[in-house]
Amino acid sequence: MKRLIILMLSVVLIVSGLWFTTTNGYKFIKGYLLFKTSETQQTVLAEPIERDEEPEAETPEVETKESVAPDDLYPIRPTKGEHIGELLIPSLEAELPIYHGTHEDELEKGVGHFEGSVLPGENDNSVLSGHRDTVFRKLGEVEKGELLVVRTSAGEFTYKVRRMRIVDKEDRTVIVPKPKATLTISTCYPFDFIGAAPDRYIIMADLVSAEYAN
After folding, report:
1. pTM of the shown model
2. Residue 87 contacts residue 159 (beta carbons within 8 Å)
3. d(CA 127, CA 198)
4. Of 142, 192, 176, which Cα lies nearest the Cα of 162?
5. Where in the sequence numbering do the catalytic residues fall?
6. Which CATH number does the domain 63-212 belong to among 1.20.120.290, 2.40.260.10, 3.40.50.720, 3.30.950.10?
7. What is the pLDDT of residues 52-91, one digit of tens each?
């Protein structure tokens, strides 16, 4: 009788042990898999997302006084050193002459237009440069959302400031093409630096209004 009881208790203990072992083993395996899955997700989330330095904003709708822009805004292209228009900065109450070219001869007279870029009003990146201690002395006071106006023989073009940034003087991304009509203004930085400044202060603006000349 005692042997039978002992045998039954042994069977119960063995079955209980097997149940406990398999149940906890299942929980352990399940927990381990969940941990590894969570760890993988965290690793993916922790990795930096590669993006362009400057994500392009949606192209703004350009208001025009004419329904269709001329096919060629500038039938006659300007020559080096030629006066091509004016840059108006309303917030600074400034009206600055623009000359075609960015050599010292042009920059001594006013704002220079980089010859390798499109002319104001045209689709792509129109680049203007000027000295920080003359025409662009107060450029750092221009704020995001303000308007910049360029008047040329092709008409009057209004740009809205989208971004300001500071880059190294050797940074060539300032003059890269853009998929929309953009105005880029560049000057040396810091503004109060004595000697050849190491950086460039950049303002980027999108064309928001165009009034074409007849």
Report:
1. 0.71
2. no
3. 19
4. 142
5. 131, 188
6. 2.40.260.10
7. 345 455 556 677 655 456 778 999 999 999 999 999 999 9
